[in-house]
Amino acid sequence: MKLCLFQGTFNPIHNAHLKICEYAKNKFDFDRIILIPAARPPHKDFDESASVHRLKMAELAAQDIDYIEVSDIEYRRSGLSYTVPTVEEIYEKYPVDGMINFIIGTDAFKNIESWYESEKLKNMLDFILFVREDEQSLKEDETYLQKLKEKGYNYKMMKMPFVDISSTQIRTNIHNSVPIKSLVPVEVEKYINKYGLYKK
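Below the sequence we write its predicted structure tokens.
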């Protein structure tokens, strides 16, 4: 199985996340992409009471996309949601062909050496990088990214068209009563409205 992981806070999941999955599927011909919401992300402030909502919204967003699976793997494990034990468990569970691929934004990848046991990731993952900002920011990052490759972090660039949607923007819109209809899947919007998420 040609497998790819997409791990993130997904607070909330939105249409750009799904576009990234679609583009990666078409470009690299993955058999399956597993979305892994981080239950307790170590690098971000998080509201633990909202963690289950983030998982449920991811499930709703992907429910009609046959090549996407949403995993609760980090919800079934206690403690912070570190990538290394998650990937180890995925290798045990799935018949993976070659290395597992891992979708990550260039901004997060630049900090990969600060991740828990990051040295292990060199032999566990092939990274698929997408640009979180614009082309100019990518040019500024190229030297640093090359240094990471020289240190053993394998990656491929995924130069998909930039989609200007962020979870921060969506939360701000909701807080300010600005519509989010074009930013998230319909079922996710309904879920947010049902539970009054991000109003405060």
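The helical segments are 15-28, 51-62, 83-93, 106-109, 118-121, 135-150, 167-175, 186-195.
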